[in-house]
Amino acid sequence: MPSTYTPIATTTLSGSPVTNVTFSSIPQTYTDLVLVSNIIYSANGGDYISLRFNNNSTNGTYAITRLTANGSTVSADGGTDNKMPFYSSSTTQYVPFVAHINNYSNTTTFKTALVRLSNAGASVALGVGSFASTAAITQLDVFFAG
Amino acid sequence: MPILGVIASSISGNLYSASYDSIATTTVGAGGASFVEFTSIPSTYTHLQIRISSLGSADAQQGLNTTYNGDTGTNYSSHGVSATRSSTGFFATANDNIQYFGFSLFSGYPSTSVIDILDYANTNKFKTMKCLTGCDRSSAGIVYFFSGVWRNTNAITSIKITPNSGNFNQHSSFALYGIKVA
């Protein structure tokens, strides 16, 4: 059988920090997308690792629910937004951040992102987000925001 | 044909290249479906992964469960931790006749699930799974992390996925992958 887990694009940052990593022109030929990232924060901007689709920044189009455990407490929060702000970032630890976006290219249903991540020095977290758009996802932005 | 795309930041090279195969896919058509079942699963892989984007038939929270090899005996246990936007929770069953993997099925906004079933073909141990699942509906959301065991040493050859009530609506999609470990 053929391999079915295919890299679409990779980005490794070097030099000066950037505010945004954009994956654009995402092909529509797959079933699901998986974002695999390892992110460290430069303290230059907001402080939540965030996702945005199709450059859509309409407030209320996105909503999230988050579960975070830090060794002594477990907490839950979330709400509507103009992005999916999943986790408070770290300036000292790389944060493994994996997002699953299933059925991303269908044009009938809204889109859901499932996220798991950890900050080895502080906490572990899960999250789910909705993108209330039936448009196929063709662009994904990863950035920090407050 | 490759059907699972990966976008990777700070990673070079391939992930699971040549070891992550599509076994079967199902998309629910008009009229919905009361369950989805993968049968005749080959035993030639190391692990299985099921990736789901599902819609329920009612805008009310429904559970999701699996059974293996047609076994409806009380041989399943499940544990889960969850969060809504305002509270955390937990869940457990023991000696149940189904294996829960979430309570996040609604209509309108798709529930996404990624289930990993490890060593599914090994005939020397019980079968365990883990699942990340959730659904956010703008006005409310819920996310789960589940684990489960099926107390049976048989290789898994079929998996039945069922909502606790109602049906899966059309456009729900289910994909079964086999993962080979070198």
Structure write-up:
Chain A is mostly beta strands. Chain A has one domain (23-145). Chain A contains no helices and 11 strands. In chain A, strand 8 and strand 9 (111-119) form a beta hairpin. The two termini of chain B are 22 Å apart. Residues 10-18 of chain B have low confidence and may be disordered. Chains A and B meet through strand 1, strand 3, strand 5, strand 6 and strand 8 of A and strand 1, strand 2, strand 4, strand 6 and strand 9 of B.
Sheet/helix structural class of chain A: mainly beta
Radius of gyration of chain A: 15 Å
Can you write the helix and strand succession of chain A as a string? Answer: EEEEEEEEEEE
* Poorly predicted spans of chain B: 10-18
Strand order of the largest sheet of chain A: 3-8-9-10-5-6
| Greatest interface | A-B, 62 and 61 residues
List keywords for this structure.
heterodimer, A: 146 residues, mainly beta, 6-stranded antiparallel β-sheet, 4-stranded antiparallel β-sheet, 0% helix, 53% strand, B: 182 residues, Jelly Rolls, 8-stranded antiparallel β-sheet
How are the elements arranged and paired?
The complex is a heterodimer of chains A (146) and B (182).
Chain A: E1 5-11, E2 20-23, E3 32-39, E4 48-53, E5 62-69, E6 74-81, E7 84-88, E8 95-102, E9 111-119, E10 123-131, E11 140-145
Antiparallel strand pairs in A: 2-11, 3-8, 4-7, 4-11, 5-6, 5-10, 8-9, 9-10
Chain B: E1 4-9, E2 20-27, E3 36-38, E4 47-54, E5 62-68, E6 76-83, E7 88-96, E8 99-105, E9 111-118, E10 127-136, E11 141-150, E12 159-163, E13 173-179
Antiparallel strand pairs in B: 2-13, 3-12, 4-9, 4-13, 5-8, 5-12, 6-7, 6-11, 9-10, 10-11
